[in-house]
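are you around this afternoon, could really use another pair of eyes. what follows is a protein written twice so to speak, once as letters and once as structure tokens for the fold. i want to understand how the tokens follow from the sequence so walk me through it. anything you notice is useful, everything is just below.
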Amino acid sequence: QKSLRNSNFDTFGSEPTHAGAEQRKFPERAQPASKSMRLINFKTKLVLLHLIHVSSEAVARASNITVRLAKLSDISSIRNINLRTLPENYTKEFYESQLMQWPMLSLVAEYKAAGKEDRPEVIGYILGAIQGLDALFHGGKRGPEFTAGGHLTSLAVVPERRRMGAAIRLVSEFHGQLKREHRVNRCSLHVRKSNHKAVNLYKSVFGYTTAEVVREYYQDKEDAFLMTVNLEEAERGYYEYCMHEFSSKTEL
């Protein structure tokens, strides 16, 4: 998978064709694709299948969504989205610290209407960090019980741009960044017990399971689910979800 350091998530590369290229006199027997190439092609098809299950209008809208690394200039948009959609709010200094400390785990989703020259609109964000490093930061040693993992801190999408796949895209790309940039294989998150839509998304799409109920985790005393997932399982769950959605919409 490509890193976001120098590429866009929605860029698909292809080798150029040359009009003057020499033609082969005898066709060569096609060589079987390597295992890695078969996997890439399979995953690409599944991502496309994921878009087919929604209406044609929604497909057009979803194709205009891109996910990229957040910049300091995005803090105003991120903060506004957070204030509009979540009861857990943060200061400007928190966002600045997040982007400085975890730049590869701070992503935004942009939407640009087809045929318009306007600047893309930031419609969602996801922020995260790596947990389990405290002992190292304080002079401790990496003992046999040491395990580092990703933690999803905050995820939000503006109400008027929901049901377009932006949240699923953000979580999927966040998982990819955890694996590519930080070499971890698990992720955790806290979610309100009453947030049934979010709990269902994490469970049904990515395979998160509830590890613990944290009593009175939030300021208003509501309990939280601590949910965790193995990132390999999350990736597999995502593509199985795509296949299920496609097959359920194409049944006669």
Notes: The first strand starts at residue 65 and ends at 69. Residues 73 and 96 are 10 Å apart (CA to CA). Helices lie at 35-52, 56-62, 75-85, 92-101, 134-137, 166-182, 196-206, 231-250. The two ends are 35 Å apart (CA to CA).
